[in-house]
Fold each of these.
Amino acid sequence: MDHFAYSTVGGNAVLSCERLPAEEVARLVGTPCYVYSKATLTEHFTKLAEAFKALDPLICFSIKSCGNLSICRLLGELGAGMDVVSGGELYRAMAAGVPASRCVYAGVGKTDEEIAQALDAGLYLFNVESEEEFENIARIAKAKNVVCKTALRVNPDVDPRTHRYTSTGKKETKFGVDIERAKEFFRRYGRDSHCKLVGIHLHIGSPIYTTDPYVESVRKATTLMDELAAEGFTVSTLDLGGGFGADYETDQTPTLSTYADAIVPLLAARVKAGLRIILEPGRTLVANAGVLLTRVLYMKRSGDKTFAICDAGMNDLLRPSHYHAFHFIWPAETPLAFRPDRRAKEMQVPGLISVDVVGPICESGDFLALDRPLPPVKRGDLLAIFTAGAYGMAMASRYNAQPLPAEALVDGSKLTVIRARERYEDLVAHERSPIALATG
Ligand code: LLP
């Protein structure tokens, strides 16, 4: 569900974000630009909190999916904590006004400086991914004479049935500690006085379109918790990670209540007995809350193919090129006959043409869609690339010296630029004054 919808204006179907026409946003902000809907973000967060109410979870927004300060501030004001994986993300969370005491910190490669920064800030929970990392956090906490809380990221060996690049809960990935080693981990470190081992963390992949992998991994985790309890270790926190789906193409994505209906019964009694639940949603909150607007620069034919060459490319939205991910794309204004059905992966309307939607980058892998049925498009048309709010801007790069795009937030008919479009000066800002460190 989102607040990007087509309405009839004259003979055309016109896309608006909340009450603002996309064309108007593009005119004021320029293209390419990411446009987010405040109402969608708020609604998603509220629905998630409502669906999981029985578990009273701390909802830590996975900031890696969309780190814009205004977006994080908005979610923080709704009560969200943040899931971070670097010192930079912790910095971002705090800059958005979210205290470290509502942040959880995962990631396989935390540096000494990052650990010290998190300890100084008063982090809520480290999600620890290896024995060496635990020892390092304990060493740094001891040297600082502070106490911190940790959860062991357990790899439950559950197949999330998603892209192999974003599958994290199988044994062969670099994440977490094999579930068989978890008990040994608690025996070795579970009584550390500076680094309290209080929880289990799971994050098996993203996106996960069925509930079974969650059920399977939660069952494995609760069995482990019972076995640990029998050995005298109390697990007071269970972090379920993220991975809930977003509506990229169909309505096959489970609703938030479908996920909750499968998960809540497994944990409700434990929560009543004092267990703290953490969720780390990213995509499910922001993906459908953002679109990428891009202008068609040129139409071109080559062999049998028709290309729409746009001002956005893989530098702005990497997902199609990197994961062959599908994003629904449609002109922001189109004759009524082509009013889109965003639920249909391929629309069956006479007159559509097959188009490769590509960017300006010098790589053949620079595409946003291949062989996509679209209404006849022409130079100057505005295209909307949907469900781009998660891992869109967050993975954008300056490849080919393309400045990063602007980001804008719509609230009703109010439009705010929440990240200015970069300028050429920004591209070279860190290279202006070479600093000699060794002269040889
Ligand atoms: N928690 C942890 C520890 C994670 O590693 C992730 C995502 C999340 C939570 C949030 O997952 P979400 O709810 O957003 O599915 N770039 C890829 C996605 C990579 C996800 C990495 N970890 C993409 O564009 O699909």
Note: The mean pLDDT is 95.
Amino acid sequence: MTARLQALSEWVAEVSKLTQPDQIHWCTGTREEYDTFVSEMLLSGDLLELNQENYPNCYLHRSDPKDVARVEHLTYVCSKSEIEAGPNNNWMDPVEAKDLMLGFFSGCMKGRTMYVIPYCMGPLGSPYSRYGVELTDSAYVVANMFLMTRMGNEALAHIEQTGSFIKGLHSIGELDPERRYIMHFPEELTIMSYGSGYGGNALLGKKCHALRIASYQARTEGWLAEHMLIVGVENPEGEIHYLACAFPSQCGKTNLAMLIPPKSQKGWKVWTLGDDIAWMHLDDEGRLRAINPEAGLFGVVPGTNQKTNPNAYETIRHDTIFTNVAVTAENDPWWEDKETGEAAVDWQGRSYDTKSGPAAHPNSRFTVSAKNNPSYSSLAEAPEGVPITAVVFGGRRSELTPLVYQAKDWAHGVLVGASVASETTAAATGEVGIVRRDPMAMKPFCGYNFADYWRHWLSFEDRSDKLPKIFHVNWFRRDTDGRLLWPGFGENLRVLRWVIDRCEGRVDADTLPIGYLPKAETIDIEGIDVSPNTLEQLLAVDPQQWREEMDHIGEYLQSYGDRLPDRLSAEHKKIVQALS
Ligand code: OXD
Ligand code: MN
């Protein structure tokens, strides 16, 4: 064994001494190994077989009913100093946090197997990829990591070559919400997660590594780790523009990433590169290039149907793990708005009764390899990534925010990103439907102080003159009767086309204090149920409402105190003055 793998085995030995598993299994990452885990989980009841004729190789996992979402109040960034973690994170002193966690982990794997999962985030061998090793006592986590990352022997070989990896220690513990913490130690490139088996808390490659720890690494190394989908939009002439889009959880990232152009948009195609996370680096020519660190999709199931997301609907017809959906009498998976079949048994395994709430949990999920997606881009595996034409921010806002607008320049775009706010959803525990500030859609995921993070974003302005243009979209604006004004889903392509037209300098726009707004005639509304009057409402900017919004944003930014970059305050001031 080489010295580099020696360090890994020593860590594994140390953890095993602490957690005392009955056995240790080093994952190889082969399909046969995955099939063995599935068979074992079918025996243990961790997985249930779904109708194999209609849904080949599809299984259902029912989680503990109190373990169904990310737990932001139990998620901590334990940097040495509290100010490093910033007001945007929960913070605990790293020594104290480790003491607490070591107490939980002590002996917790008795009677269980400890799985060693070497994994790669990003295409294997890409200079932009990073490696990690997760130690876990959950076979469900291993199976999900198999679908979501490039894991096993090949990743291990790269770890041996590069010598560096993120250490992730996970145990489902007793699944007791009182004994549950997700702790990050950015300075030590270490994650400790105890007491939950839910995706965002337990698949450590995803939010913990690819966002919280990676964002910290990205700052020191000069790149960006973002909560963004990546899509390629191909025009009828065959040119593809790549967009990276950030939306808070459950604002339709997966739907946008897998969009199928409606019939009216002849000749257009959309290619998926990623649906949740983008790592972006400047290349030698100063272009921002993105890779998707993930290899699979962990998407929200309810709402998926042949109209809203036909690609996802196809993607999850085979080789998929469903978590917390309902089942039909034929043992097919079922969820709200599936639009075929009906629930017989709810997500908790009880005979379904409409009075006891939704049949599928609102945050029920599918885990599936990205390769199942018919529109998976061939460049998703390209080690050099794809050049990004536009960065698009968005949020769920019933009022105020127009369908789309463009930031005037990079620094203004950073302010637009920092100002993202959205109505909360079921992806995290807590109250649903209140507006919360979610800068760059990274509120739950930035591994350090947001003020430093904005400074890092701003620094790109001095490093390149070929940066993407920045936009903001809102698919969720409603009229005074509460009806959505924009049809959304596939029709969102019409807005992406305007974004690309702007980047290519093909259309003029109106200059307003908040940014460049589309001239009504430059958004194609032919063939959809959006009247010119509705489009006017969608694009309306109410100066009084915006003055109030800018006051809220100002107060929010000021809560970062002296660390707030002057450049960002200056951008804010510019808009306030223009509005008054
Ligand atoms: C996710 C989330 O699961 O953002 O992607 O909650
Ligand atoms: Mn997400």
Note: The pocket of oxalic acid (ligand 1) is lined by residues 70, 200, 249, 276, 298, 427 (CB under 6 Å).
Amino acid sequence: MSIVKGINNHWYFTPDFKESYITAQEIDLNVFKEVRLPHTNVELPYNYFDDKSFQRISCYKKILNIPKEYKGKTIYIDFEGVMAYAEVYLNGIKLGEHKGGYTPFTIDLSGAVKFGKDNILTVVVDSTEREDIPPFGGVIDYLTFGGIYREVHLRITENINIENVFVKTFDILQEEKRIEIDLSLIKKDNKNDVIQAICVLRDKEKEIGNVSKEFSEDFTTISMDHLQDIQLWDINHPYLYELEVKILKNDKEFDSYTTRIGFREAFFKSDGFYLNGKKIKLMGLNRHQSYPYVGYAMPKRAQQKDADILKYELGLNIVRTSHYPQSRHFLDRCDEIGLLVFEEIPGWQHIGDAIWQEQVLEDVKGMILRDCNHPSIILWGVRINESQDNHDLYVKTNALARKLDPTRQTGGVRFLVHSELLEDVYTINDFVHDGGYRKYLAKNIKNFATYDQPMKEIDGEKVILREPKMVTGLDHYVPYLVTEYNGHMYPTKRYDQEERAMEHALRHARVQNASHLNEHISGAIGWCAFDYNTHADFGSGDKICYHGVMDMFRIPKFAAYAYKSQKDVKEEVVLEPVTYWSRGERSIGGVIPLVIFTNCDYIDFYYGEEYKGRFYPDKEKFAGLPHPPVIVDELTGYWGMKWEDARFIGYVEEKEVIHKKYTRNPIPTELEVAADDTILCAGDMDVTRVVVKALDQYGNIMPFLTDGIYVEVTGNGELIGPKYLSLIGGSIAFWVRTTGEKGNIHIKVCSERFKEKQIEISVE
Ligand code: GAL
């Protein structure tokens, strides 16, 4: 039997590295400080920091005491993610290394363990942007941060153990379904031993199928046939089963492996994307896995929350894990809630030398072996995002992906038109929609250049997405997916001027509309979900790309409602007018045209006491969208007149279902402080986000309020990031992490203008 134990607490860390740390017999507590995982090598400010500050070699240590009874067993340590290169030593002996910050790796410690004694584990972590490791070597528009930023496990097992299990599902649309289980073993000695594998399929606790096989190789495939009454996994009904594989030798259990699986058929065709035989228009956003202050180092709950935000707050059906394999917890949650995933290998535009390219193949392998059992993943991205065509490399990445996983199609994100199609799906970043700005620049400046030159000829005001055949250069349609749009074409801060915020939102709506109108486009995944920290070469100069439909704290911009309002009204009624409601915020004054993102049938609008009328979704301009926005184009008075309150009432099937009010004279009334979760878990690090909003007397966020707040966290928790914060556009959030102990976390938020707020979180 194997024992698997998370070892995420009581690590020791120093941000620097000296050779002498490797062989030191003790952990010098003057140099090393105790930390917990996930850990970032440097806590960064929210913005305006040196983008080199985390690019350093640092050192982690941990004492491992492995009892004598385990002598003769195999002792593994499993790392889920270390940025970007790690060397692992036990008692001064080097036992392994790993290149690549996004794929897991396992080191066999057995040879150097002193059983029953303290062993010193040392991990040297190189978080510099090493040219031999993708995505590095060129520039990249995001930060990769540093440290042991995902969890670590200790695994004590027999000398024959399970390396990986891949469960493939077949005959999904038939009455009787079938699975094939690819089982790979590690046999350290006794290579010819006969092993028995027992596979059990469970629906919740109930066994619904089993099969057993004897074999002596280190790889075998086991089928389980005639599976009946299986519920399919889909976006509205993400039904999961559990498959357990046990291996036995002479009736003694050696190892076991449990994975969740879903029965679903996902297929891109030239006329769209099909899930279980049903066509679905894909609507999604790209996600970077980064957070303020701690970069990538966020534990399970925060990862899960991001998936929930994308699915439930934004109403998306797909996410692209730009530009690398993301946290297992994020993907697990996507499986649980029915959020489809396009996952891709690490990389950004640059392709390095032969060694670098070998690493690309390692990354394809690492990604697929880790994630092949997630039903949510429907496509592997096997190109370096936006790189040039490279026939030899991409023939290899595609062949490898197809060999490792014949059940999924491949994609590979490009910005190139007429690019060589080696993948199953032509995945393209289509930044053509520019609101007419390219045309303007081409006319007004001499050396206008963009990296996507062919777009110069296109009118990006009128053309919202290009015709697939024009992009592929082929005379027939092929499976086709738009994987980015907007982003740098129109960076927008949450508190930007109303017209800009509105245009930002409309661009997202227009592209989705165009995608919905073209049956040869499987869907469109916008750039991007959340603002993110970036290098000096990108972003707004403060090390932030304001490309999200939400800010870095996951607080929505108006553009978020272009998506959210597409939700089925039965799921949630949405009514979000794009306005800060004032006479003088927009150029020339007024609030017209007033865009209202809603899934209601129509709305009534009152200006003060005056009924301005009934307004309907604009089905002409947005014929493709499930729920076009309502656009109010009636004037609300002229400059110099008294300003009034506003009231919007939404109706579904003739019934009033929602209303929203705005005051002519907003007064700071309440500082709302709300935690996403009020019960956290003791033990390994747990976190929750706390959102702070300055509200007026009608409960609306005050978009330009920038007051300072002071946050105090006491009890069994710690604040992540600074104690002194200022509201950004009337709101901000922070994360609080547990210390590991059970008990309560007390959070106090003070400010000059508002009454002090206190909340409690319990850690159980
Ligand atoms: C793309 C790139 C993304 C991001 C985006 C900004 O070219 O793939 O990573 O930089 O532009 O719009």
Note: The domain at 575-662 is CATH 2.60.40.10 (Immunoglobulin-like).
